[in-house]
């Protein structure tokens, strides 16, 4: 049984990735910053430690001696209020984990490192593929570009796979994010919701599909050294999301466009190309976005 170290295991994405890996027979060693509020399904053991502290993460690495690593731990909310914490967690945390793995006598067979489609920025409208120049438009995107550059320092000695997920959602995601915010308002039958531009369209996937992609990549030797978009390949506008939620729940929200949610010079439509990923892991079981919304509304 493969021993897999999973950072960020207590987070929204981590819990789904733990389940996907466990379903494939992995022995999951979950790394968390703080004691989780509830058990992490599929985890064989939970290790508490701060990824920015090299000694702490080195002790965990030596105790587990993982066959595989999936690194998800990061501050993922673009508008997070503590910029210094975001830079430390997303960049230094990645560096210290990779350094601990590089120093280990037992190297893993693969390391999946979660970056973000935010590295592409918004300079170019339309389809984004892995060859596009990086042009982050916010601090979160900058930290992910920096983390990718940190990873490049270790590519010669470690089997690194970089993933760039586009937007994704599902049960358990914070209502700070746009789709859970809409779902939460609709479920409690609120009369009004404040949003930004409704014609903005982005690539949305189901978190369970993203988790399956990570679980497949970690066991794909041909993926090592590569960078892969994780995406659906199509864009959905906020207006479409609102219309689907209204149709599924029979409740229409009155939308008020708030200036605080409107970004200047925001491009209308962005989506990713999943072709490179498909070439390595095959076709993923794509879940129609309507089904994702129904699943969230029925939670």
From TrEMBL:
The keyword Lyase applies. Keywords: Lyase. GO terms for molecular function: GDP-mannose 4,6-dehydratase activity. The keyword Lyase applies. InterPro entries: NAD(P)-bd_dom, NAD(P)-bd_dom_sf. Residues 5-295 form the NAD(P)-binding domain. Gene3D superfamilies: NAD(P)-binding Rossmann-like Domain, UDP-galactose 4-epimerase, domain 1. Its EC number is 4.2.1.47. PANTHER family: DTDP-D-GLUCOSE 4,6-DEHYDRATASE-RELATED. This is GDP-mannose 4,6-dehydratase. It comes from Sphingomonas telluris.
